[in-house]
Amino acid sequence: MVGSRKQQITQKGPTWIIVLVCLACLFLIALFINPLLSHTAVCKFFPTQACRIHNHDDMHSNPFPRELTDNEIESRVVVKEMLKFNSVRTKTSKVAFLFMTPGSLPFEKLWHKFFQGHEGKFSIYVHASKEKPVHVSRYFVGREIHSEPVGWGKFSMVEAEKRLLAHALLDPDNQHFALLSESCIPVRHFEFVYNYLLFTNVSFIECYIDPGPHGNGRYIHHMLPEVEEKDFRKGSQWFTMKRQHAIIVMADSLYFTKFKYHCRVCTMLLTFTCLMFFPLLIAWTNCWFLSMFKHVQPGMEGGRNCYSDEHYLPTFLNMVDPGGIANWSVTYVDWSEGKWHPRSFSAQDITSNLMKYFTKTVLFTPCMWNGSKRPCYLFARKFYPETIDKLIHLFSNSSSS
């Protein structure tokens, strides 16, 4: 009897331990999945500055405007003075085309046809982040600038954009600046693009509020006090910008630094390693760690995977000159597939109807150009290199509009 009872206890012991461990794991998984629960629980036991900010936000907001920091005052003075001076258009005014590419441009022949016959009205700058490009067009020869490695989604993309702008601003005749990728193509002829950009009174920078996890869910409170959540914006990185705004962007260090250090992509390899080998530890400490470095928003990513190239310029320019940006990009991108990356067009997709679609498509709201409704798009992306021959044929046979 004694031996039988001992055997029963021995059999029940491991079972209850397994059940308790499973329940604990489920609880920890719930904490990991639900940022609101985890943040509340963590703040109860591990109060941090981020917790205090979170609790302060839950209270009614201060009806009085906050006092600006010295850096903010200095920044606003510089921006205000720069906005007073409008660029003077002359007969030698040019549009600067800024190409950000890993190496050779697969559509250089198409761009050659686009630029041909319009010498003196454009400048070209190429930021090749991986290898020196091989050129097939005389317009691109010798147009590479000093480049640095660029990682997708990393802040190095913003740094590359500023590097391109800096080189282009050295030429006083460059009055408008268009950022393009290696997969971009023109969907209008040069004269249309030139007049559209050079004689506009705005910069074409997409800018909108995205309340979801891939928009304001990326906001982190360590951007305070200079960048409040109500000011956080999202938009495509493919912009065109007038000289006035390009100079303002070059002069900015305050907001540039905020985004550089606080709007970043987490290291996926480290996260994967931790989840593989320390799942319980990660689940237990995840939100406490994030509360120290990244404020966790209920039901959102809380600053994890913040892509500065989608947020820095829309947020900054919307804060300093909201009336000076168009709130849309003149580069067409198809996000209809609902993936992390936009749709890429293959050779079989290239038809005259598709090209007409790019030029006729409008956004949900009319695209206003100097107070008048105009076509929305001048460029389009993303295209596979195999489409080059069809694109050149269609571009050569299209109208001059």
The ordered H/E elements are HHHHEHEHEEHEEHHHHHEEHEEEH
CATH class: Alpha Beta
Total beta strands = 11
Gap from first CA to last CA = 98 Å
Largest sheet: 4 strands, mixed
* Estimated radius of gyration: 26 Å
**CATH architectural label:** Alpha-Beta Complex
How would you write the strand order of the largest sheet? 2-1-3-6
Uncertain regions spanning at least 5 consecutive residues: 4-11, 31-61, 267-303
Helix vs. strand class: alpha/beta
Tertiary shape:
globular
Organism: Lupinus albus
Membrane topology: Single-pass type II membrane protein
Main location: membrane
Subcellular location: Membrane
Q: Secondary-structure blueprint of this entry?
A:
Layout: H1 2-33, H2 35-45, H3 49-58, H4 70-83, E1 94-101, H5 108-115, E2 122-128, H6 156-169, E3 174-181, E4 185-186, H7 190-198, E5 203-206, E6 240-242, H8 243-251, H9 254-262, H10 268-277, H11 279-293, H12 308-320, E7 325-327, E8 331-332, H13 352-360, E9 368-369, E10 372-373, E11 379-380, H14 388-397
Helix pairs in contact: 1-2, 1-11, 2-11, 4-8, 6-8, 9-12, 10-11
Protein model, in words:
The protein is α/β, with parallel strands linked by helices. It has one domain: Alpha-Beta Complex (Spore Coat Polysaccharide Biosynthesis Protein SpsA, Chain A), CATH 3.90.550. Helices cover 43% and strands 11% of the residues. It has a four-stranded mixed beta sheet with strand order 2-1-3-6. A three-stranded mixed beta sheet has the order 4-11-8. β1, α5 and β2 form a beta-alpha-beta unit. α10 crosses α11. The radius of gyration is 26 Å and the shape is globular. 32% of the residues are buried. About 19% of the residues have low confidence.
